[in-house]
Design brief:
Distance between the termini: 16 Å
Order of helices and strands: HHEHEEEHHHE
Number of domains: 1
Number of helices: 6
Number of strands: 5
CATH architecture: 2-Layer Sandwich
Structural class: alpha+beta
Strand order of the largest sheet: 1-4-3
Radius of gyration: 15 Å
């Protein structure tokens, strides 16, 4: 898959997020990078043989003080190569990207892992039965 096609799938996945999330997703840059660096994997304590599909960088809405402002945008990074390597078809890549975005957007909103899992179950996996529950990390293929 070309990088351009992958980026297009990320945009489509963003457009498919529940409207209640999209309406409040402000000052967030969604970026595609090829893969997480070894230093990032170590910093995030990702075990050997596993990787990241995506990562949220920023201050969750629930942790911002009343005078929060004049800050650079938060970032959600989607890692192309791990997503592609973990999937056998473009349809699986679409599903993986969507679930990764739901997970990272959940972090932006300050949701706990349990709350994110509930959103994934109630929204994403019901509409995409081939979703595998990546939670932003996955095994290397």
């Amino acid at each position: 898959m070309t990088r351009g096609r992958f980026e297009q799938l990320v945009v489509e996945a963003l457009d498919s997020l529940p409207g209640r999330f999209r309406a409040h997703l402000r000052n967030v840059a969604v970026i595609v990078e090829d893969e997480p660096s070894p230093e990032l994997l170590e910093e995030m304590e990702v075990p050997p043989g596993e990787t990241l599909f995506g990562l949220y960088h920023g201050t969750p809405l629930t942790e911002r003080p009343w005078d929060y402002g004049n800050a650079l945008p938060d970032r959600i990074v989607v890692f192309r190569r791990p997503n592609e390597a973990d999937c056998a078809s473009e349809a699986e890549v679409v599903t993986n990207i969507g679930e990764t975005l739901i997970h990272e957007v959940g972090h932006f909103f300050g949701l706990s892992e349990e709350e994110i899992e509930e959103v994934e179950e109630r929204y994403w996996r019901r509409r995409h039965p081939d979703a595998r529950g990546g939670h932003g990390t996955g095994s290397e293929a």
